[in-house]
């Protein structure tokens, strides 16, 4: 009997009595049973980063379904991976172009095909849930819940594979990790069609995959450099009948010709965010209150589609929704910006770990941060210098050079912020999410920067500009030496965090770490931002400045900056709801009209237009071409045109599917409008019915000169 005969049919338990012809093992069920039990134990829990009850960590309880769809490389944008993904989601939702697939269906036939893909690439940004999805796949297979057509599943992380320096064979790799399968390995290899390899985290691989490696005869016993071994396996030169799933971040590419399916994890949808809140708190009333707060805050809701962000938000909001009002610290307010969420998260994990009992409940932020001031600032400095150097994995020597002995790690709050990557004799560390490193780096910048070098620091981080000034502070000199100016786009999240944390310092919220700055800094900031908007900047730089101003959240600064913004060009810059919120936040502080707002091809959709409604009346030239706008958006635009304060002279709505109902609303608005001179409505789905009231409405209009 071959191994394929031990694969259970749906609904039939794996309890067949075997008369085997295996070379070594007479009963393959025993090692396979050991293998499955071992996988169930290893994948049974989701690890949290603050103290949590066991009931909330089990994967069956905490796992929340993810939105996975087939990848479209044409939607890829060169920018910070979080912003690129947020914009991709906006395009998919507004165009309604996606097919949702569950992780267990990754090896199912694609639409219109009758064959199963064997080589699958799954990409997703940090924290989106790639590793958890793989964990769930392994767990469900081991329990017999899904993918029961596979006899055996082998999982490896690329962190593990990076430890292999000498040439190695596939058989040796498997025996190294799964020694309990050694006896039946020859028989498993005889039927590779029933084998699945799960390789997680290609972006963390120390070696570069070489898909141009010369073809040669290879088998499971051929010893190869581990990078070549993975390349041969995924190309199909080795065990072509087996199935392979590789996960990676977007920054790592595999030639598409070797991928039978390319999928992307887009995180949570709205229903999954609500589900996650319930699974996190295990309390219907509490989870509903938290979810409603998140859903009503565009900034937080825009973050919550990423599972790890959702975890951070829920952890931060616990402070305000799980404690009695009398216990809530007066120096804490419910976070509204991204920076405030992360600062509350940092406060929460430190308070949980450093303080105990009544002291833990009642201690203010100043007290908590003061208790760990030296260690926190040292870790923040470490995060900052590593970020400037584009470094995300660390060895023992890295910490020791910053005066952070590893023997103190398990008993300090470090263990809530860093994760250990311990594989055999090698021990490495990483921040458990890239944004934690970026936030801590920004904390160091906000506490270290002085009034004299603030402008120079902003010039460096946002524009890569710096002066060779021997009188610059040590902080700035080190920053200039470490920063790779060709990778400034990777500092976008850092600069937003810095803006928010600078606001916290200005407001005395970092009292345990640094003295507040003087009010004259507000003037410096206003002048600096004002100068930026007078420069010729890329669309991405303009958008990042708007977000920095929203994170800073200082009305006096925005009022200084707004008069410098005469025109805004974000043409072909895909904007999500949070981007529209940031744009509205800044422009609504302007006392003057905006000469031009160009949002053509920005994919804002109806929801984005709703966020922009308070400012659109003051835009003299308004470009809304090809923005996935519908009849509801046209109705909203008609309200703007009816407004007594409307100053719109030229309105470009072409390329939107507003249809007859939408255009009838616009004709009605023009009946009383006295500002619009040119209106462009070509390619908007208007038929003859859309002209029913055009003569009646436009007969008395004295200003419209051109209608397309």
Topology:
Blueprint: H1 29-43, H2 59-62, E1 67-70, H3 81-95, E2 119-123, H4 130-143, E3 152-157, H5 158-161, H6 170-177, H7 185-190, E4 195-200, H8 226-235, E5 243-248, E6 261-267, H9 270-281, H10 284-295, H11 298-303, H12 307-321, H13 338-354, H14 357-362, H15 365-371, H16 373-388, E7 394-395, H17 396-400, E8 418-423, E9 426-431, H18 434-448, H19 454-463, H20 474-482, H21 492-506, H22 520-532, H23 539-552, H24 555-561, E10 567-569, H25 577-587, E11 594-598, H26 605-616, E12 619-623, H27 631-642, E13 650-652, H28 659-670, E14 678-680, H29 694-698, E15 706-707
Parallel strand pairs: 2-5, 2-6, 3-4, 4-5, 10-11, 11-12, 12-13, 13-14, 14-15
Antiparallel strand pairs: 1-6, 7-9, 8-9
Helix pairs in contact: 1-4, 9-10, 9-12, 10-12, 12-13, 13-15, 13-21, 16-18, 18-21, 21-23, 22-24, 23-25, 25-26, 26-27, 27-28
Which class of secondary structure composition applies to the elements? alpha/beta
Tell me how many strands there are. Answer: 15
Radius of gyration: 29 Å
Query: Which consecutive residue ranges, at least 5 long each, have pLDDT under 50?
Result: 1-25, 49-56, 324-331
Helix proportion range = 40-55%
Calculate the terminal CA-CA distance, rounded to whole Å: 75 Å
Report on the biggest sheet. Answer: 6 strands, mixed
Strand content: 5-15%
Count of runs of 4 or more consecutive helical residues: 29
Strand order of the main beta sheet, please? 1-6-2-5-4-3
Oligomer: single chain
> What is the molecular shape?
globular
Mean pLDDT: 84
